[in-house]
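Hey team,

Filing this mostly as a record. A colleague (T.K.) asked me to run one chain through the structure pipeline before their review meeting, and I want the input and output archived in the tracker in case anyone asks later how it was produced. No errors, nothing strange. Just documentation.

Input sequence:
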Amino acid sequence: IVAGECSAAVYATGMHTELGRIAHLTQTAGDTESPLQVEIRRVSRLVALLALGLGLVFFAIGQAIGLPFWVNFMFAIGIIVANVPEGLLPTVTLALALATQRMARRNALVRHLPAVETLGSATTILTDKTGTLTQNRMSVRELFAGGRHRLAAERWPAGGDFHLRAVARFCHSLKFPADQPAGDPMEIALWQFAGPIPEPGERRGEIAFDAERRRMSVITRHADGSGQLWCKGAPEAVLPLCTHWMDGDTAHPLGEDTRDDFNRAHTDMADRGLRVLALAWRPLAASDEADEAQLALAGLVGLEDPPRPDVHAAVERCHEAGLRVIMVTGDHPRTAVAVAREVSIVRGPSPLVISGEALRAMAPAALQLALDAPEIVFARVSAEQKMLIVQALQRKGEIVAVTGDGVNDAPALKTADIGIAMGLSGTDVAREAADIVLLDDHFATIVNAIEEGRAVFGNIRKFLTYILTSNIPELVPYLAFVLYRIPLPLTVIQILAVDLGTDMLPALALGAEPPHPDTMRSPPRPRHERLLSWPLVARAYLWLGPLQAAVSLTAFFVVLQAAGWRYGVMLDPRDPLYLQATTACLAAIVVTQGVNVFLCRHPREAALSFSITGNRLLLLGLTAEAGLLMAIVFSSGGNWLFATQPFPAEVWGGIVVLALAFGTVEELRKFVVRRWGRAESPSVRTRAV
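Output structure:
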């Protein structure tokens, strides 16, 4: 590339090779199944095996007690249906879709639906600096030229800063649609700082910037063949190429003392968070090759890119939520640390700072050990090194979210558990490789998206608690029927009415719960934490379920006893008394589930602490549930299809009282847990099923 005048053919070949390398790395990263998809499949298998096992057991029991084959077969089918959470997959999809909508309203566009929940389980964020933590609105603030610091707005002697401004004006890759500069904000800032300068000749070539060289050059030529080479880049990359330094129009040899002065000035500006560039040039004779050698250093430029106003609060939320934030940038280490300290990524006196050069010399084991440091900043790193950092964190069991905007970031975005591309400043390649695109390039948007992702996992657990609870009052009637020889309190078709009818919409509404205020006040869940935990199963199967079963059987026996039924008397399936009793049992399950949906909004917080209108789908689901129950009980079609019959009005009052008592008992348990115990909330880590 640097030979001759940087011909377009050579440059195009180099770009083709680079894009091919990036494509290979991106393909190597591959697509992986999200943890939520794996867990949903596991829970589905587990529940299916449980349901099938119970169905076979009840079928064997029915055969043993002499039930007719087809009646027994239908009972077994009913048991299987009663234990399958039919709404699990729709709820997962709904929870992800609604979280995606909320994230879109908060400027995070989700490209892959499962990425919503994966982001919620993230433990580490690898973030860029420019544009993500900062505003990406650069301006030249300070200069070091002629042996002293100067403010950018300071007046110079006439022509004293010509070469410095000329490099800033002509060394760029900007485009000018409608005569306005478009491109890298840093180059726009330099171009605007330089102001109008007479053209030094025709632009003949460019030595493009890349992460290894950390500099770029532009060649201009006059009609007689003479010209200039304008160079800008990282001071540590440009200073070794310089043999002279400019003091106004005079070039002086660049001795060691002067070189040390420039290095100290570089360090001083970087410590104050400025992005420092060295600007240099050289004249070219007609016969000179356009190589970057024997340059004259025009000076150092310090660019200011202020942090976004609310990024400090967003980083503090990450710390509060147990998320680790690591800055990975191409800037100078001192600049990176200064900005990281300003936005609270670094809070201690001595963070670990690893440069790309040091990282290149590190063995994988050394990098693994280095990542144990509480505060780390990576500076002057390349895209491949960024991917190595991601892989090292993943080997340590971290779930890694990575931000990126350039073509070179694609491998890291693809390798990460969750890739986050910039929508405003990002390239098409980066957006294609990412799972989520930030429409405002804002770090705070990542934190908001993590909150939504965490809510998804919690909502699926709420759904499971709710839907598994009704399995017990559906199973207990069959156990009582077999063991105690009583009339069957609930028929198979009535089980289906609960599972596929009344329960579905309230259960789906639980999947649409907005994030709880405490969502970002607890640490991220462990990578291998199960969706179906022992506390969840115990609460549904050993506490809420038996309480509901007691309420439903009480309603069943109250109807029978009021009509003078005596124990041991079996009733004909078409007997009006039997139809009323089973209808009362069904109604009791539905009404207690209506109370239970409020109890399941949080495993520990009181139901009354939530706004009733906070989830409008919940109210819609309860309305539909009540309407369906009324149709089943009071309509002739519902009576015919579900084998039901209206029961006395006073029994309805008793069911409501018992359902409220059921809710009160659960609220007392929550109160005890809040005050003296530990709950099965996502912030409490428990062994999973």
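Quick notes for T.K.: Confidence is low (pLDDT under 50) at residues 1-31, 679-689. The radius of gyration is 35 Å.
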